[in-house]
Amino acid sequence: MIFLKKMQVANAISIISLGPSLLAIIGILFVVSNINEKSTQAELSLDIVKLASLFDAVAHTHAVE
């Protein structure tokens, strides 16, 4: 803390604010990563539903014949 007393106020504030800023950036990265993962899972689920619908249509066509 002694070195902070000898520094200019603007430099001391910049150094002190680095910690919370880094924590905020890391938190945002985790949130974006989580959203990206959920988006990928949602796309996969939609593809599975589309594929199941296609298989259902094929099965129905064969059952009618």
Q: Care to describe what's here?
A:
The protein has helices spanning 2-6, 9-16, 18-64. It starts with a helix and ends with a helix. It is an all-alpha fold. The mean pLDDT is 90. The longest helix has 47 residues, at 18-64. It has 3 helices and no strands.
**Rg from C-alpha positions?**
27 Å
Mean pLDDT: 90
Number of strands: 0
Provide the succession of SSEs: HHH
Taking pLDDT < 50 over at least 5 consecutive residues as the criterion, the unreliable ranges are none
Quick overview:
This protein has 65 residues and is mostly helical.
Task: Record the SSE blueprint.
Blueprint: H1 2-6, H2 9-16, H3 18-64
Task: Summarize this structure as a short list of keywords or feature phrases.
65 residues; 3 helices; mainly alpha
